[in-house]
């Protein structure tokens, strides 16, 4: 794991050269319950007492932590100076900051990116109490978003590995998903496999995988039903994100439940083509320098041009340690997405491209793929679904 | 699970009668990564978009959530009114608050209790942007701490269950922990058992269990060493917290590694008696109405009276969904503990009582028990270790 934290701290030092603050300060306590999503990027394991992890523009890294937390940090080798304390963090923190003498300190709070918003309001107030008006406290949102979003080679490799394991599960799904079997049973089969392998869940286990069978299924983040069974003439759909070695996948696949000898109905084929075409339109539009909403618009307008309703979500989000990894979003300019659709796509960002249509009498037909952004444009990390298999 | 959320929401309505605000508002987004520790008390599962969960003094419960998150909340039956939105939370949230017309709104931020500090600073700023100066925003820290700390019968039952499973692991430990075996090997045996059972970890898996063998071991929150092996004449010590059905244990046990035919050395027995006596002194002092630091002082002064150095941590913390469950603390008045040692012990609080001594040439001798507070005083939930077994 320490290869990763070393890689990310190196990246942090580089990104800090372009930041409008002099020290990046991650201020946390009891991180097992009140975790800052930025912390695992730069530190393995948890911290119990008030802890200040600082990276200075000069490249120096300093950790001020409780005495029981100091040993693992010292052993990691990632931190130039580890300052343990027993009774309180105020004095050692003030001393270290005086030495580093920053003008502005960047903190992990953000209106638009939950993954750059790990500082709690109570901890912000605590910091204000300790520091008084000695330093200017500013948002490190852009910096943290960039640090998280720009995936290193190791990170991309891990995401690919999680996708490969997800493909394995999708390849087994037809063995579990037979006509007459309930959504819930398929969900349980998949979870047993995931748990048996010791993998994690890209979003909460309760609603992962999402399994939708036919038109009566609950679309969205609900729990698969024990009362809805797989039925010929319907569409069967799974949305699954697993975490393998700390990195997540997030993939949707769908199948047509055919009667014996039945061919794929025209309305299903037409909808599949529209969804696939929209995914491809989004993929074509995904390149460095453009704003996320333009990528969403490309897919959205294609889908509408094919006679289907707009999807009620963003075309894509970043993927990393979680399925929803924050930062720039391939989404429409809706209030709930804040500034994230206006953020620029950059090289080494990893995005989902996902959308679907509700087909009357058939169910939800949705696809989700994953791509990495390179200089020359997007490259698939997943193996895109290009036809509608039978179940 | 919904029995628990219904129980806790009932308790929230009662506690709200004594609060100095009219609406308790839990304001969250992307809760799988940016979770508010108060959320699982009142809701099963996660929320993706900006979500406002409100309990009004009248008893009414209102959830304003993104459209894809609405179904499971409606199905839970816990919420009187569920308001789904598509584009943004501002309008529906303002509408619902106008209807409820609170003067003060209690929010989840806290200087002293990380478990009552789930509101991020970015989300606080977002709320300020939406609400302007229409309402007074105050800390709900005392309320959330009380809601979390006062365990319902179901919650106490679950903690007892987690303790029983922990006892099972401790009973198996001597089968793994033989002279010549490393700390790390014992740790791996225990983790394999926990993972096989599908249990969770009361604190981060990386440092759980803590395993200490002899005087060279790293005391604190570090990772057990592959290079330190169990050796006669040393003390062997484990600190373990597991989560079973969402509730945690947190127990320490220790053993003396005896040579064949050896009796327990006098210095070890003396230290064990001192630690046990201090645990008992704390237990005696633990009753409703007293402040936490007095309980710590009873144990601390007893230990010192027996000729040992003070332990460098608090005597005890609350246990619940996590091993460190926040709120009032049985701790000394040190800066790093903030106001928590001055908070009053109340009926239905559940605490650890834990301490140890470093015995020169022997290692770390520590015990940790769990007790619930009742009208008449403390009652053990764990089965206290009262002698020093041989390994």
Write structural notes for this entry:
Two copies of one chain form a homodimer. Helices cover 33% and strands 20% of the residues of chain A. Chain A is α+β, with helices and mostly antiparallel strands and 391 residues long. A six-stranded mixed β-sheet of chain A has the order 4-3-2-1-5-6, sandwiched between helices. In chain A, strands 7-10-11 form a three-stranded antiparallel β-sheet. In chain A, strands 8-9-12 form a three-stranded antiparallel β-sheet, covered by helices on one side. In chain A, a hairpin with a 3-residue loop joins strand 13 (350-359) and strand 14 (363-374). In chain A, helix 9 packs antiparallel against helix 10 (292-305). The mean pLDDT of chain A is 94. Chains A and B meet through helix 3 and helix 5 of A and helix 3 and helix 5 of B.
Summarize the structure.
Chain A has 391 residues and is α+β, with helices and mostly antiparallel strands. Chain A is 33% helix and 20% strand.
Number of distinct beta strands of chain A: 15
The spatial strand order of the largest sheet of chain A comes to: 4-3-2-1-5-6
Helicity of chain A, as a percent range:
25-40%
* Most extensive interface between two protein chains, with residue counts: A-B, 67 and 67 residues
Keyword list:
homodimer, 391 residues, alpha+beta, six-stranded mixed beta sheet, 10 helices, 15 strands, elongated
SSE blueprint:
Two copies of one chain form a homodimer.
Chain A: H1 2-16, E1 23-28, H2 39-42, E2 51-56, E3 61-66, H3 70-76, E4 81-85, H4 90-100, E5 104-107, H5 121-131, E6 136-139, H6 141-149, H7 153-176, H8 183-197, E7 200-201, E8 210-213, E9 235-240, E10 242-244, E11 247-248, E12 251-256, H9 266-285, H10 292-305, E13 350-359, E14 363-374, E15 377-380
Parallel strand pairs in A: 1-5, 3-4, 5-6
Antiparallel strand pairs in A: 1-2, 2-3, 7-10, 8-9, 9-12, 10-11, 13-14, 14-15
Helix pairs in contact in A: 9-10
